[in-house]
From TrEMBL:
This is ABC transporter permease. One of its GO terms (cellular component) is plasma membrane. It comes from Paenibacillus azoreducens. The chain crosses the membrane at residues 17-36, 56-82, 103-134, 161-181, 188-206, 251-273. GO terms for molecular function: ABC-type transporter activity. It comes from the Bacteria. Keywords: Membrane, Transmembrane, Transmembrane helix. The keyword Membrane applies. It holds the Pfam family ABC2_membrane_4. The keyword Transmembrane applies.
Amino acid sequence: MMALLHSEWERLWKRKIAWLSLISIPLIILATAKYYTGHNLTVPSGSPEYTTAENFPVMAMIEQLIVVFNVVALVLLTMSFTEEYRSGQLRLIMLRAYSSGQLFWAKWLAFALMMALFFLVYLLASLACGYIFFQSSSRQILFYYDHSVASGEMVLYTLRYYGMAYATIVGMASVFIGIGAAARSSTAAIGLGMGFLLCSLGYPLIFDMANRVLGLELPAMLRYLSLTEIQFSGIAVMMSSTDVIKAMHPGGWMACILALYMVVFTAAAHLIFTKSDRWI
């Protein structure tokens, strides 16, 4: 199994999109730093939107998680699951002494490890960029916090934030794997994946409008049925220090939503991928 995982890891790195994604991280962070440098001129220093050297890694992740990381995940998984099957490459691997189930999990783990590497590089590059472009501050103002935090606590907050962001990418990737396993072409997989992203982005807007216009008074936590909404504001909500938000138990709710997406779509993808007639 380790040999198969190593093989899938190498196959991913042979793709230009993997190298280009990794190499582009410093450029993405530089562009993000430039944006926040200008944004700082429009917000007060006491605002959670104000960027400092210490909170820049989190601000940079907030800015790029939904677009950059989701799209990279979609493209990599489409190439790994859909394109390789349609081109016949997977049939060559199946000639070896590996089952389709082993191949599925090797591909899944290779992708998860690659995304973990991307997150690590992104974190290290944003840390360096933060101290180059932004002023340092001994206290940080955070979203959904009722008090400022010291630099040491900010380090822990940043690590937790990146860990949760990675978990949302794993959840989103589970959906993309399900789509990729079922799709008949790479174009269809990309199109359906982008369609899911757009629906996920649009759901909170429709939810808020229905609640306001129709007076449904649905619980606010239902907004986080959307994976992109969890990525956009849900992570900060889960890490909130305010008693009002804590009383809603957002962490448990969103963890259940993520787990549901992962279990349902991964199980469906595994079932489709390992069907005996798929390799005939």
